[in-house]
User: Fold these one by one.
Assistant:
Number 1:
Amino acid sequence: MRGRTALLLGALPLAFLAVFFVYPVASIVGMGLDGRDGGGGLGGVLQTWLAPRTLDVLWFTLWQAALSTVLTVLAALPVAFVFARFEFRGKRLLRALATVAFVLPTVVVASAFVALLGPRSPLNDVIEAVLGAGQRPIALDGSIWAILLAHVFFDFAIVLRLVGGVWAQLDPRAEEAARVLGASGWAVFREVTLPLLRPAIASAAAIVFLFTFTSFGVILLLGSAGTVTLEVEIYRATAQLLDLPLASSLALLQMSAVILLLLVSARVGERLAVAQRLRPAEDSARRPRDRRERVTVAATTGAMLLLLGGPLAILVERSFATSAGYGLDAYRALGQTGARSGLFVPPIEAIGNSLAFAVATMLLATILGLLAAAAVAYRRGSVSGGLDALLMLPLGTSAVTLGFGFIVALDEPPLDLRTSPLLIPLAHTLVAIPFVVRATVPLIRSIEPRLREAAAVLGAPPRRVWREVDAPVIARAAAIGAGFAFAVSLGEFGATLFIARPDVPTVPVAIFRLLGLPGALTFGQAMAMSTILMILTAAAVLVVERWRSGQPQVF
Amino acid sequence: MLTLGGVSAAYGDRRVLEDIDLSIPDGALVSILGPSGSGKTTLLRLIAGLERPTAGRISWDGADLARVAVHERGFGLMFQDLGLFPHRDVAGNVSFGLRMRGDDEPSIRRRVAEVLELVGLPGSEGRQVARLSGGEQQRVALARAIAPRPRLLMLDEPLGSLDRELRERLPLELRTIFQQIGATVLYVTHDQEEALGIADRTVILREGRIEADGPPESLWQRPPSAFVARFLGFRNVAPAVMVAGGRATTPWGQVVVAPDVPDGIHSIFLRPDAFTPQTDGPIRGTVTGRLFRGDHVRLRLAIPDAPPLEIEARWTPLPAVGDELALAVDPGGVVVLPRGADEATAGTFPA
């Protein structure tokens, strides 16, 4: 396909990006440089950046991200090994569990860890029963440990998929050659396996670092005054201090840091790249053969099940817990309004809102995302590469920055969307497009040009070729993209928190508000809403998973 | 001395090798030949320790290898798909076994230069393996396998992925290299010419069992079974009934056989180069196919109620398609096979 066609396909997504991404971001930059009160211009921005408070926040953001990344890689590597080398029952289920954990809304994960590690933890009930009344030692919410654990929970799937995928496809011959040449088990890993995995580990670590660096919901819900990241600080400056210039300067710092991160990780990735032949994954995995292998598989997968399944199980358990055992009290309370719900509307309405926004996002993001994916996939080279990178930008930009940008840019003519019901789907679409593009480009690229040629030689005119060869694949890509867009919209929290109107909350926003209120019932409601959201998201993603083949993919 | 006694192997329910007895004396150059799926590669992997036998014993100089780990065996194995380390340069690949053994830097460098010279890639230490041609990669893999001076060198289809020109040239070079390093060599291939050409002794595998074992010349001249004859590319195999006076009745006509063959039904194999024109010859048919092969023409001779015969004609004038021929068979080219007639007619052997 010629460049002109690619540009034509890409025009609509590009226009969308220009209006709803570039314009808001430019507004933030403008506002930051304006610095309405106090020292304006670049000096004002630098002053904010170098303020002790900012440096503290930046330092915390960096080290919690680094520590989360290291912990995630350490936790997921053994599982990646077991997944790559062994065949065992429940493997597909465990892989699905990791994927579900990855796509779960941040508020659900945060709720799960509040349930697991907060003072209402059932673990405390057990301890109290053993040690006597008043002994409730677990209150880790607000501590760094809860945040780190939640990050490991979230990003586990990234390392598992990226590293495990490459691991399963490593040429087993190289490892066998090393053994025959006299390398013991550990030497084989150190000398052959690890160097070959290093690029995959590095790129997985880079993604985990980026995600934890821009982490928002987890920190906001599980953190405390001492654990503030840049994202949370931007939110605080906007929502609590009402200091928009400060928020703009911080958002600029955030964007600069993310761009720097992306550049560094691309450079590192290039340096580590190893040209190697990968092979189909199926023939390298086998059933564990002796006791030692069986114990390894059981222990590793058991630990993974505990880490990923435990918090979710306790979340569900807490949603059914009542003062007198178990029941549906919390779920029934979702229909109530007024003081008991802590919201302006009955929480159940949030579910309707979320579903409506998710459907609108799904339509918008699938259409725009597919157009963009087609433009990227049908043409290789600099145009396609540039478009590809441009489309990924909203992913690198933090959700909070996007939401903040919407507030700054879209609240006055020429574009006043403050009261438009489309505002939230537009923001969600921006977040969802990169996922749709990432999920569909490989699929569209996988169409063998030979097939088109064969169809043409067999007498199919161009339109017919497209219908017979391309259309079925694109239909599948559309279904996958739609599923992702739906799931992303359901769970989006950072941007929504800025732009959702109090009387039209989404489920994540409702959960956040409920968790912020004291009382057993609102806690139960938060757990019940989180459980519902978890089921909705998991269903969307599992449907998508069925459509996909088993290539290593991040999203 | 490598000894295999009653060795069997299986992948799940599928039996790959059954009851293999084999001994390879030090310094021998043995090729292992068989169609794909006959268990050749598994045999090498068992000896290397990469797979465990389900039964039987593998030993070296009488010592059982069952409890010796792969990396402690001191054998060399060159994989069919090479298994070069893509993250190391040529020197990094070739020196691997020496480093694992704990050799010191200068002696490693010396040895690497030495083996690269031996395989015909002198001075290529710093090159990236991914940038090498197929033939060069194959040489690096060979250099890597021989660098630690293994007491046993095993090669799995070492020429498998190469083009025809290299496949024809390299066996000569390989033989020279094997003689220089003086190791015991097991050479696995599915290519008949390669197997018979390179080794002093050839073991033919068939569905996990040893079908034949002997010097290449005798396997070629007098195949011990119908399977071997067919696997070596010969088509003129058929059941035959011995009659008195050192004669045998075949579907193609009567031929003379050695007088000591007992009466009864056998299989018989007529070498394609054993035919000569003779006006009253016992074998009569029509030429239906003709391939020019340089020093001879290959003919297909159709005979009523019999399978077609393959004949290498070196006489003049060269026959043409449609010619009626009457031929005699030189008794030296008539091989009576020990196996039953059922095998002779079973035509399921891959070419």
Note: The first helix of chain A runs from residue 3 to 34.
Number 2:
Amino acid sequence: MSLDVLTFLFVGGSFALYIGIAIWARAGSTKEFYVAGGGVPPIANGMATAADWMSAASFISLAGLVSFVGRDGSAYLMGWTGGYVLLALTLAPYLRKFGKFTVPDFIGDRYYSQTARVIAVVCTIVISFTYVAGQMRGVGIVFSRYLHVDIDTGVYIGMTIVFFYAVLGGMKGITYTQVAQYVVLILAFTVPAFFLSAQVTGHILPQIGLGATLDSGMSVLATLDQLSVDLGFNQYTSGKKSTIDLFFLTVALMCGTAGLPHVIVRFFTVPRVKDARLSAGYALIFIALLYTAVPGVAGFGRVNLIQTINGADGTGTAYSEMPDWFKQWENTGLLGWADRNGDGKVQYASGAAFTAKKGKPIFSDERGEHGQRMTTNPTPGAEFDAAKQPFANEVYVDRDIMVLANPDIAQLPNWVIALVAAGAVAAALSTAAGLLLVISTAISHDLMKKTINPNINDKQELMFARLAAIVAIVIAGYFGINPPGFVAQVVALAFGLACASVFPAIIMGIFWTRHNSQGAIAGMLVGLVTTMAYMYYFAFGGGSPDEYFMGISPGGFGTVGAILHVVVGYVVSSMTPPPPQEIQDVVADLRIPRGAGEAHDH
Amino acid sequence: MSISNDQAQAYWRENLRIIMTHLAIWFVVSYGAAILFVEQLNEIPFFGFPLGFWFGQQGSIFVFVILIWTYVFSMNKLDEKYDVHE
């Protein structure tokens, strides 16, 4: 069967499954809508958490990122898994015992303050929206490549599907759909990884294959180091980032992970405190299945990419002889070639092949003499440092296409490619649904019910939740169709805010009984403002990297924000009266597992 | 709360100790092995990987999984010891 037919079958079949589950698991009450009735078994919750967590960023972008930056990618691999250790040990059991629906619920009640609640709501909404934008773009990329529709149509299809199960099913529909999506996405990631690993190294497991020795007698990593250095890149296994920057980035990603509202809320859905811990355990196993395969996929993909483009003799491949995938990705605009030295061959090395837009090509409507898409901004001339590399770079490869292009590059069977497409869509949709639910809950529950009008009944609240979900889907779709040009900074912002505002506020609320509302509000504001200001200055305010505070890049600044949060929070709290006795009793109570009961409203 | 104040405090202290031991290991395998001492460990070959690189991209994740599970089991035992389990 042709690739197109197979892709329609795989993606269409998975959609039918998700919609079927959504209809089966419709939500009837706010409790079912917000926390799936509070009765999800830990293993199912673990899978749902894993699907919720592993977004288009994990599925599509992470291996691409590691592939291009090598060792520095460790920050993301460790950050996005190590955060679960923090979550399981310091947050999940206590928040479950606390027994409310949302993160703003905890912050508003623990700090007995509507101001604190509203700050938490704002953080929740900003964090979740920045995240959703990336998911919709992921859906768009997949549809445009495999279903040959334009990105906009792809986003509309994605919006319709999410609308079905997020708006109808709420948390209950989402949870059970995510279980199915986890199965699809993990198969879609690991099956091609097994193929790749077996093909390149003879070991089926990429975790072992990455350490294997090739026919040439060199190990995979040594080969990668050699190829990288020969082409003027950094050694694959050593980093470019300074130790302090890598350290702060990893902390920000870990604490940010543990502070993301859509992840935390998953631990409200299980019956007991014990199950909250257990869910985290299952979730991390399910996540680790994908994450430990990522470095292998990244490494093999990198070797394949370099060898395919530069050819067996390492001098480049004529454009007319490039495989189909090269031209198809060129058509999506995520890959571009400029024949800077005029030899008709495609050559890949260090350096930017295009000027402006961070080295991305700007395409004109014309085709060149070899049939390639013409660009308006190739880097003029073909000079290069002959001591470092054999030729000038002529190619732009978007990092996001690595996972999707890998099976093509390795010439895997068509059904594997179709499976990858279904998996990428599952990853993007499952995360988008979880985020949309958090946004709608923040608006209907935390803003409408708890702040603006406490008198609305359950039915009205549910209606507001569904309305908010619809509005959120429309806004997310808008971002998918008109993606902001600063997606990377925006995602860094989500983690930075979660790390600097949400995470310390919850931790201090649990582990320091004496912490009061004044301290918490001051801390959250300081964390929020400093982190946002720093990121804004370096993203839009014209700040240059040599002005970094202690060499810390904006992605790692959330850690500094968190430290300021804790210090300011402590000082202000110590200078103001302790919290009322009943709050101190609540804190004492949430430390004892027994009597968690169901997630309740009041 | 069904247990006395002293018991609750003793439970909390033991709980904190379990958390701190686990977090110490968590810190050593990630920040220690893969960031602070990565250069030194990279001198040591480990199944075809430089050891520091292996910790950063594989080893730490395996240890994280084990840590959560040993935490789950220690806490279940602790809950029963103090009779606060559900």
Note: Strands of chain B lie at 45-46, 49-50.
